[in-house]
């Protein structure tokens, strides 16, 4: 299945070589199966569910829809790169504390999406949060605890006020 | 709860998930994330036809593709050809006839998923296409030829109770249709199978709801002793009933044994739609007879559940449907007939609510009709008839669970209604959302009610026991059980139980596998009760051993000792020793099986104590409907749920909110569309799931009353939230529009055409 080409990707600040890959592989496949980064999950392969969310050049995207070979020369950030020192981010901690995690399959994608949202817009209102996360499907929680987690992060970052 | 209990995360505290950190970091090992040296990928060839005869299968072109290691078909199944949860009627691979679109015909193992896809495309299967049996009524009336040696009817069961000719002054009737819903768990089916070096066994990591049942069915098909098929729970990305039946388990293990190499299979989303059973589509006719004051006198009903091609749990789903005909209401007389039938539609089985969803949509539509006919309010008609502990149900079984139906309704009714829609709302708050299609002037608001009863645990004589092992050493507890953690949080609850019973802080959960007795399935809202009971029982046995040990060491009577917080104290107050000190250098190891009380089969008239226990819930929905476009926005769901004791309130709220979202999906958006056996929308683009923008405000109240039948006083809370929210929303749409609304999901054409 290989065509013996080598290309490089920049993932979480590191340059990673992809060898012997079939050129048709998605970024999701390459991250998970070739680069040992299984945090992004595949659940729909159509860009509908957001489980595979990663950030490319500061834009949250569905990695299942990106050809890996087309992502050369770009900055790719995955859930594994959020906390290189092993600590939890405020978003991750809030997801745990507020009960936003059940089966957890959507969680890495949502955590990446929430970080992306709050970097673009530190003070989103309720509808802006809902709209920004509407591409991330969660089947377990009904979203109530996820909203609670996001609200907590917004409040904490703003000294207690939304 | 006391602050001490909360600090130590004992029962009643909002203990946090032990797997939470791994999950938020993307490090939790879902089954599809597993990998093994020298691993091959597996994939399944499926029938494109709902009904066809297989003339020939030629696998040689696939085997010629570089990278393809094996192709297996029915001829390679070493043991039993058929499997099933209740009736063994489903082939591992079809060999002579395919009976549904997507039925497995062959499987391949290769070096890359893309190689697998090419191999599947290269297998040549010649079919003689047959006319599909897609109308359940033709299975019932016998006008269709049998499409399976076992015939076209899975089960017919009636219930006759009291005087079936009893009449009141008022009669309302209707026929209600429920569409086929998908569990749509996000983590698709996955397994990794590793053959033993001698080829005489296999180790399987799998995402499932019931390890031991999988093991039993797999061993038969693989012709291996059960102990040679060792299962470990891989991380499970949701289940909701869809992992109760086998899917890829036998295929993956067979490929591993065939190739002598580890094999991983994982379905894509489209394949997942074909690879697991769905919620039964159903047609339910009901006629209620009531007195002028609203008292229900008699209910007549007919249920038709379309079970699709294979039996799965259809017979049990049917039982649940018909035995919940009356809903959470008193009913002295009833005559009910139910059919669960075989067709060439997709196989259906367990999904959260398990037959009761279908019954509830019908009886709650009827309750609104009755209220309208009598000029009563939807609340008053429900309170008037509300079931109580001690009532005799239409099966003759006496309701002996705590039954706070009136409390559920009253507390829901007391929740404030949401504010009116503003005159100039944001477009995302309108039905249709960012499509910008709705016009504020065409929007009407409606309020609707739904109340439900749900049996918990398995029924009809089935002993779905659970096993747990508890080891205590140096103040640390290790718990071992085979309870599938699918997201519901048993791994959070089990340590809470151990901390409470044994006064420890540190609890380790051992690997969840078949190395201990069965836990039964993570379904039927049963694990808090059953596996919770098993963990409690094992911990109590260890506590007894510990107290006896301390008694010997300190020359006191063991019966004078008890565990208080993290210490062992005697009743005289003269002895106080920490559990950690007391267990230093010794260890205790006990295993306990929890069995619920026995239940009975129904007799030919549908009479018998067939269920173990029941839980109740009320929902009130507020919707905004654009009558011109048929679009619906669910604004608020108010609910009060009978939970027994809330052992982890945060987890309970998570179940309530999550169940409501799934019930909302069935009410207004989720349906697998099947025409003449063909699935039309097997993708998340075409099968619509609730998103953040569809999620209503949920105002939830827990009705906490200790359930004496339950080992921890708690009821299962997983299923009730998704049951009556669906009719509440449908009834709200009817309230807003005056339309008939006799099917769910409610489609735009049901509102505006």
Structure notes:
The complex is a heterodimer of chains A (162) and B (753). With 162 residues, chain A is α+β, with helices and mostly antiparallel strands. Chain A folds into 2 domains: 75 residues, Roll (Ubiquitin-like (UB roll)), CATH 3.10.20.30; 68 residues, [2Fe-2S]-binding domain (DNA polymerase, domain 1), CATH 1.10.150.120. Helix content of chain A is 31%, strand content 14%. Chain A has 5 helices and 5 strands. In chain A, β3 and β4 form a beta hairpin. In chain A, α2 crosses α5. Chain A starts with 5 loop residues before the first strand and ends in a 5-residue tail after the last helix. By secondary structure, chain B is an alpha+beta fold. Chain B has 3 domains: 157 residues, Aldehyde oxidase/xanthine dehydrogenase, molybdopterin binding domain (Aldehyde Oxidoreductase, domain 4, 2-Layer Sandwich); 185 residues, Alpha-Beta Complex (Aldehyde Oxidoreductase, domain 3); 324 residues, Aldehyde oxidase/xanthine dehydrogenase, molybdopterin binding domain (Aldehyde Oxidoreductase, domain 4, 2-Layer Sandwich), CATH 3.30.365. In chain B, 25% of the residues lie in helices and 27% in strands. Chain B has a 7-stranded mixed β-sheet, sandwiched between helices. In chain B, strands 9-18-17-16-10-33 form a 6-stranded mixed β-sheet. In chain B, β12, α6 and β13 form a beta-alpha-beta unit. In chain B, α6 crosses α7. The radius of gyration of chain B is 27 Å and the shape is globular. The N terminus of chain B is likely disordered. Chains A and B meet through α1, α2, α3, α4 and α5 of A and α2, α4 and α16 of B.
Entry keywords:
heterodimer; A: 162 residues; alpha+beta; Ubiquitin-like (UB roll); DNA polymerase, domain 1; elongated; B: alpha+beta; Aldehyde Oxidoreductase, domain 4; Aldehyde Oxidoreductase, domain 3; seven-stranded mixed β-sheet; six-stranded mixed β-sheet; 27% strand; disordered N terminus
């Amino acid at each position: 299945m290989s065509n013996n080409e080598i290309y490089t990707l920049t993932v979480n600040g590191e340059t990673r070589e992809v060898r012997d890959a079939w050129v048709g592989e998605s970024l999701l496949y390459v991250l998970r199966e070739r680069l040992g980064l299984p945090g992004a999950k595949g659940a729909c392969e159509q860009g509908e569910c957001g489980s595979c969310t990663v950030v490319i050049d500061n834009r949250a995207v569905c990695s299942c829809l990106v050809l890996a070979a087309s992502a050369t020369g770009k900055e790719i950030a995955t859930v594994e790169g959020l906390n290189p020192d092993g600590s939890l981010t405020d978003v991750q901690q809030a997801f745990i504390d507020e009960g936003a995690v059940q089966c957890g399959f959507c969680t890495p994608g949502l955590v990446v999406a929430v970080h992306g949202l709050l970097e673009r817009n530190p003070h989103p209102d309720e509808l802006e949060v809902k709209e920004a996360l509407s591409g991330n499907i969660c089947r377990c929680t009904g979203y109530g605890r996820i909203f609670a987690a996001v609200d907590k992060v917004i409040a904490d970052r703003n000294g207690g006020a939304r | 709860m006391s602050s001490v209990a909360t600090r130590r995360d004992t029962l009643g505290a909002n203990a946090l998930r032990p797997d939470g950190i791994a999950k938020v970091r993307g490090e939790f090992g879902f089954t599809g994330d597993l990998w093994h040296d020298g691993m091959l990928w597996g994939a399944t060839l499926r029938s494109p036809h709902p009904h066809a005869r297989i003339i020939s299968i030629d696998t040689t072109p696939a085997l010629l593709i570089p990278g393809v290691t094996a192709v297996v078909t029915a001829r390679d199944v070493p043991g039993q050809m058929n499997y099933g949860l209740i009736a063994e009627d489903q082939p591992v691979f079809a060999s002579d006839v395919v009976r549904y679109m997507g039925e497995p015909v062959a499987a391949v193992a290769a070096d890359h998923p893309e190689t697998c896809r090419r191999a599947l495309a290269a297998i040549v299967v010649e079919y003689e296409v047959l006319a599909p049996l897609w109308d359940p009524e033709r299975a019932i009336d016998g006008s269709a030829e049998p499409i399976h040696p076992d015939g076209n009817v899975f089960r017919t069961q009636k219930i006759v109770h009291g005087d079936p000719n009893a009449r009141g002054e008022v009669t309302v009737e209707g026929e209600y249709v429920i569409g086929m819903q998908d569990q749509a768990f996000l983590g698709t089916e996955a397994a990794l199978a590793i053959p033993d070096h001698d080829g005489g066994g296999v180790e399987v990591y799998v995402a499932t709801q019931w390890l031991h049942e999988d093991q039993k069915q797999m061993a038969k098909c693989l012709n291996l002793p059960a102990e040679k098929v060792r299962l470990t729970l891989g991380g499970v990305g949701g289940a909701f009933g869809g992992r109760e039946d086998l899917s890829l388990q036998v295929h993956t293990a067979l490929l591993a044994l065939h190739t002598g190499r580890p094999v991983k299979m994982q379905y894509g989303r489209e394949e997942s739609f074909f690879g697991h059973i769905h919620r039964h589509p159903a047609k339910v006719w009901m006629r209620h007879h009531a007195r002028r004051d609203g008292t229900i006198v008699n209910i007549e009903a007919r249920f038709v559940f379309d079970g699709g091609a294979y039996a799965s749990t259809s017979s049990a789903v049917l039982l649940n449907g018909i035995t919940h005909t009356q809903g959470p209401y008193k009913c002295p007389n009833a005559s009910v007939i139910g059919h669960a039938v075989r067709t060439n539609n997709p196989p259906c089985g367990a999904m959260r609510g398990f037959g009761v969803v279908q019954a509830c949509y019908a009886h709650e539509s009827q309750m609104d009709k009755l209220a309208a006919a009598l000029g009563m309010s939807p609340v008053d008609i429900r309170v008037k008839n509300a079931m109580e502990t001690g009532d005799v149900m239409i099966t003759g079984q006496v309701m002996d669970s705590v039954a706070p139906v009136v409390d559920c309704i009253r507390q829901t009714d007391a929740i404030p209604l949401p504010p009116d829609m503003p005159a100039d709302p944001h477009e995302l708050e309108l039905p249709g959302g960012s499509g910008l299609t709705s016009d504020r002037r065409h929007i009407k608001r409606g309020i609707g009610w739904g109340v439900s009863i749900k049996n918990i645990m398995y029924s009809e004589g089935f002993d779905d026991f659970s096993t747990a092992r508890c080891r205590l050493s140096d103040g640390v507890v290790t718990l071992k059980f085979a309870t599938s953690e699918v997201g519901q949080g048993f791994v959070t609850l089990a340590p809470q139980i151990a901390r409470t019973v044994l006064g420890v802080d540190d609890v380790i959960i051992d690997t969840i596998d078949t190395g201990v007795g069965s836990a039964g399935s993570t379904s039927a809202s049963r694990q808090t009760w059953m596996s919770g009971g098993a963990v409690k029982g094992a911990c109590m046995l260890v506590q007894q051993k510990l107290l006896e040990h301390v008694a010997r060491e300190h020359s006191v009577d063991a019966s004078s000792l008890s565990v208080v917080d993290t210490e062992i104290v005697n009743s005289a107050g003269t002895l106080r020793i920490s559990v950690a000190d007391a267990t230093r250098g010794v260890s205790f190891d006990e295993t306990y099986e929890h069995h619920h009380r026995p239940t009975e089969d129904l007799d030919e008239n549908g009479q018998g104590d067939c269920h173990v226990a029941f839980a109740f819930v009320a929902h009130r929905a507020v919707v905004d409907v654009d009558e011109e476009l048929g679009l619906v926005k669910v604004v608020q769901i108010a609910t009060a749920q009978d939970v027994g004791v809330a052992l982890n309130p945060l987890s309970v709220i998570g179940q309530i909110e999550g169940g409501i979202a799934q019930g909302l999906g069935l009410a207004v958006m989720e349906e697998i569309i099947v025409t003449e056996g063909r699935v039309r929308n097997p993708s998340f683009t075409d099968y619509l799931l609730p998103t953040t923008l569809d999620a209503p405000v949920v105002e939830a109240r827990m009705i906490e009353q200790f359930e004496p039948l339950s080992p921890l006083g708690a009821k299962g809370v997983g299923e009730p939230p998704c049951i009556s929210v669906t009719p509440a929303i449908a009834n709200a749409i009817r309230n807003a529009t005056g339309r008939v609304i006799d099917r769910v999901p409610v489609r735009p054409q049901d509102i505006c055409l």
